């Protein structure tokens, strides 16, 4: 079960959050978690989600709830 969150004024599922970070839809997604750190751009609350954009890749992504900032653990 994934819990919906409000991101930039829109209600998103974990799948939609991963899509916002990745820029395209992803294969598999875990539930949304709270990020350990606030957004480095605006200081707003950031969310974390682990997802699989493809069968061979596991990515941790972060997205601010208030602004356009997002980040992944890719190099
Ligand atoms: Zn922000």
UniProtKB/TrEMBL annotation:
InterPro entries the UniProt entry points to = DUF5795 (IPR043813)
What is the protein named? Small CPxCG-related zinc finger protein
